[in-house]
Every structure is written in C-alpha cells, then in structure tokens.
Amino acid sequence: MVSSIVETVSNLAEKEVEELPPLYDSIDPEAVERLFIQSETRQLKLIFQYCGYTIRVNATGTIAVETSNQ
What we know:
2 helices; globular; alpha+beta; 24% strand; 3 strands
C-alpha cells in the first residue's frame, strides 16, 4: 500500500520516486500498514498530506490522491 502511494504521487508530480521526499517525513509508513492489517472495521479511513497532495486511504485499500489546497 505504501509503495502505491509513493508511485501514484510520483506519477502525478511527474517526478521520479527518488526525487520525492521520504514518505516518513509526512507519516509513519509502517504504522499505516499495521493499522490497515490489524483493523477489523471496514469504516477505517486515513487522510494525510504528502508532497502537496491529499492522500485518502480506506479500509478496502483504495487510495485516492488529489492536489492539496494548502
């Protein structure tokens, strides 16, 4: 899931993955993985900012990335 987030932002930003700041500067990637693996609720949603984008992840693993207004 975490690699999908970085790859999606890379494509949208038209930059190589290596050019982006580390995801852990915005959120703990390991904690995100654990949160969704251990969750028993289908209502879980996580929203955070990364590289000028708003990232939304839900319990089914769907990832939505859109340009942030900030």
